[in-house]
Design brief:
- Helices cover about 40% and strands about 10% of the residues.
- With about 280 residues, it is α/β, with parallel strands linked by helices.
- The longest helix has 16 residues.
Amino acid sequence: MKVLLLHGGPGVTHEIFENFSKHLPDAGIEFYYYDQLGSYFSDQPDSPELWKIDRFVDEVEQVRIALGLNESNFYLFGQSWGGILGMEYALKYQNNLKGLIISNMMSSIPAYNKYASEVMETKIDTDILSKIKSFEDAEDYHNPVYMELLIEHHYVNHILRRPFQDWPKGVVRALEHLNPKVYIPMQGPSELGASGLLEKWDITESLSKITVPTLVIGAKYDTMDPRHMEWMSTQIPNARYAYMPNGSHLSQYDDEDKYFNSLISFISDVNTPMN
């Protein structure tokens, strides 16, 4: 049982997954940290033409080949942007997969943006939201006050539900190491929605083509709509849904036990199916 981890961003790092080492090895599951091209621990070419979904998908395939992973042992795990990458990989290369895990990612950026606008923004005090929007309107994304407002009124409620000073060091490092030259062209500069090259990405009509065993993980406080993710699990023919009632976008930390129990159970079930 071998799991390749696809981090979010684009342009974050494997550091977001450091607590996987507390859980997967004891279950007999081997896992691989993998920093995508453009991330802090990989080469960081200043080549905007490289930041395309198809190229990232083929990069994952090259990593799979190099690691010797195949349909007998290869589980692909993607969280957030990594979930997009995982779904796209499955649509092109699923014959190489034994199982797929889509964590905290919807199948449509337009649907995500609608949820962000109609649901997530209403959870922020109107005066605070107005201040955040004023920074965005002025494209003053590097202003420290902008980030302070996001951390206090958005991140600690929907990215990782604990006081920021208590966030795991790996998560903080991953944010510090984010490469804006990848992140902004693809995701866009705002943290309250997506724009950039991913703005129109939508594979809802293709979910039924993913035939490998799949786990979809959603969380109550996530920036991604958990009901949409539950619906996704009904569209993928061989999928199950795991709901994190205490979790947010990084629910591997704020609903840790349930998250890893669900993940390990899925991988183990696929590895040794019942007769």
